[in-house]
Write a structure and sequence with these properties.
The complex is a heterodimer of chains A (about 350) and B (about 325). Chain A is about 30% helix and about 20% strand. By secondary structure, chain A is of the alpha/beta class. In chain A, strand 1 and strand 2 form a beta hairpin. The chains are: A alpha/beta (about 350), B mainly alpha (about 325).
């Protein structure tokens, strides 16, 4: 498959009053043509930072991308490009949809103007053409009566509608890559499904590759082709949707899957307790991140080596990547404590 | 919107009525009386004649009624008590345009330079430009405008001879007083604009705009300016009105025949009619400016526009 985006050794630090926060620590991954890559992880694990680092939209004055970092897109390293060149890539070739459509839309500009802006910045078009195109895009994101809606302001739209507008803005120039940073977190559940369907539909139509950032494993299981789990600024496991859900290999992924509430889990709990599993402890302080495994402190299966040496990345035949000492041939065999999708069939 | 405006005009008239009434009784409570001073050396009978001529022998309520009768039926605010034969309305019509022009020029300079300086300083936060602008701002707020007026007069007029020292006539006469009056508003607007700008630059929609591939200049003009200018507009209304009367010291320094100096002297002269006339004029102007600002809001911020129509529909 054709690689659209290739990220190698990306590290980002934030310089704050408290000290240097190593928000992203040496991560590498690829994005292939037309696929959906889901990045999951808890708050503060660096998933949003990763997405913003790709189009270099990190807070200028405090964020620093390390010199080794490579974000290869169309033969160029985005981490090294000058602002002038980046400007032409943002919005046209790589665009973004953000979490909260209410605050990410300008309250004093009409929807039409905000969408048209993307076109006027990147395409040579007359006003009439821009208007025509904007109406077309609004229709595509299923906003009824686009001609009248064009002249309205964000506050005249509902939350779901606003997110549709955001998507319209992001896809106006038919980008190669769409980064969706928790696009449904601020919406209610029924709207969430609509928005995800819309993204999927447009992705197929435009042939866009999507990076979806989420903490919702339900969404990840529905739309992702590949899933990448992040913890404390690192990617600790990555694989296809089936690999992650059917044969997860990292204890953190197990914990994540165990904390998803399901109807059957509550009913069939053998110990008689109906409590939902939650992972004890907190992620490590990223001002002084642990040299060895970052998850060791919270890990039920922690071994001696976990606190001494950083685990390498183990790869199995199918390209399932895990950064955990449990995958080492000499490690004791552990039974996966999660009811995976594979198990369900046996019930 | 129309209903909203009509409602606002109604409130405006009510406010004007209250201000006028309060002023009418308050000036008459000040010890001293314009006729008394004028007729000190005259015999009592002649003094009595003066009192009758101006209606001061009548009870206050009668005088109050008479005042409204004259104002509403003839649009007449009476004659100045100090300068005989000069009508109050004529005086205002003659001198207000001078003060108004001076004030508007000063505000224009203040707003434009304040906004530019404020944006520059916000964009260069923590750098030299920022410190420089904030220095100018503190300078402009803490130094009274008459000091600046004298300095400008001394350097630009006496030393360099670029502008006339005093008087009123062509445009060149207006430059120095406008500058002197504007520094305070420049400082104020620069500070407000800097704060607003920094606030807007931290908003999420700025990231959206950047993610669209927008450059800095574009960003400032299309997204930052409009969103950060609203509080500036709020300040603008009252300031326009104040400029008509608040500039009397600067007007004195440059010997400008403006309304400001008249207002001040009319108070010490107990020139009742003049005080009434000017108060009504100034209050009307102030309230009108605030009204205009409120309507302007709606054009700049669509969210306020919506609230208005809702209110109007009730």
């Amino acid at each position: 498959m054709e690689k659209v985006l290739e990220i190698k050794n990306l590290s980002v630090s934030l310089h704050t009053y408290a000290g240097e926060i190593k928000a992203i620590r040496n991560i590498s991954f690829d994005l292939f043509h037309q696929e959906t890559l889901v990045i999951v992880g808890e708050s503060g694990c660096g998933k949003s930072m990763t997405s913003k680092a790709i189009i270099q939209l990190l807070p200028e004055n405090i964020a620093e991308t390390s010199e080794k970092s490579q974000i290869m897109f169309e033969g160029q390293n985005l981490a090294q490009l000058p602002e002038k060149t980046l400007k032409n890539i943002r919005g046209e070739k790589i665009s973004m949809v953000f979490q909260d459509p209410t605050t990410y839309l300008n309250p004093t500009m009409t929807i039409g103007a905000q969408i048209g802006e993307c076109l006027s910045l990147h395409k040579k078009m007359t006003r009439a053409e821009i208007r025509q195109q904007t109406i077309e895009i609004l229709g595509k994101v299923k906003i009824s009566n686009p001609e009248a809606r064009l002249k309205q302001y964000p506050h005249e739209f509902s939350g779901g509608m606003r997110q549709r507008v955001m998507i319209a803005m992001a896809l106006a120039c038919r980008p190669k890559v769409l980064i969706a940073d928790e696009p449904t977190t601020a919406l209610d559940v029924t709207t969430q499904a609509d928005i995800m369907d819309l993204i999927k539909e447009l992705q197929q139509e435009l042939g866009t590759a999507v990076i979806l950032i989420t903490h919702d494993l339900g969404i990840a299981s529905e739309v992702g082709n590949r899933i990448q789990v992040m913890y404390a600024g690192e990617i600790i496991e990555s694989g296809t949707k089936e690999q992650i859900f059917n044969s997860p290999a990292h204890p953190y992924t197990w914990a994540l899957l165990r904390s998803v509430p399901t109807v059957s889990a509550a009913r069939t709990d053998s110990s008689g307790s109906h409590k939902l599993y939650s992972l004890p402890g907190t992620p490590p302080d990223l001002i002084a991140p642990p040299k060895a495994c970052a998850f060791a402190g919270r890990c039920e299966y922690c071994m001696d080596i976990c606190n001494r040496v950083h685990p390498p990345v183990f790869e199995d035949r199918d390209g399932h990547l895990v950064s955990c000492w449990l995958c080492h041939p000499q490690a004791p065999k552990v039974e996966i404590p999660v009811k995976t999708k594979g198990d369900k069939h046996h019930e | 919107m129309l209903k909203y405006i009509l409602k606002r005009v109604g409130y405006t008239l009510l406010a004007l009525f209250i201000i006028t009434t309060a002023t009418f009784f308050l000036v008459r409570l000040i010890p001293g009386n314009p006729i008394e001073a004028m007729t000190e050396k005259l015999p009592d009978s002649i003094r009595q004649q003066f009192f009758e001529q101006y209606g001061f022998d009548k009870p206050l309520t009668e005088q109050y009624k008479l005042f409204w009768e004259n104002l509403l039926t003839k649009g007449d605010l009476g004659e100045s008590l100090k300068y005989r034969g000069r009508k109050v309305t004529d005086t205002i019509a003659q001198y207000a345009p001078v003060s108004g022009r001076l004030g508007l020029q000063a505000i224009a300079i203040g707003v434009v330079s304040g906004i530019i300086l404020g944006i520059l300083s916000a964009l260069n936060r923590g750098k030299l430009v920022d410190y420089l602008v904030m220095f100018i701002a503190i300078f402009g707020i803490s130094i009274p405008n008459f000091v600046i007026a004298s300095l400008l007069q001394y350097f630009l007029s006496i030393k360099l001879g670029w502008f006339p020292t005093t008087g009123w006539g062509t445009f060149s006469y207006t430059v120095l007083p406008s500058l002197a009056l504007s520094l305070n508003s420049t400082a104020k607007y620069a500070r407000y604009m800097r704060a607003n700008c920094l606030d807007v630059l931290n908003q999420d929609y700025i990231i959206t705009a950047k993610a669209k591939g927008m450059g800095k200049t574009h960003l400032i003009f299309k997204h930052v300016l409009r969103n950060s200018i609203l509080p500036i507009i709020t300040l603008l209304g009252p300031q326009i009105a104040l400029m008509f009367g608040g500039a009397f010291v600067v007007e004195k320094i440059f010997s400008i025949p403006g309304l400001g100096s008249y207002f001040v002297s009319s108070v010490s002269d107990r020139d009742y009619t003049m005080i009434m006339g000017q108060t009504i004029f100034m209050a009307a102007l102030y309230i009108f400016a605030v009204l205009v600002v409120d309507i302007l809001y709606g054009f700049i911020d669509p969210r306020i526009r919506l609230a208005d129509t809702k209110e109007g529909g009730n």
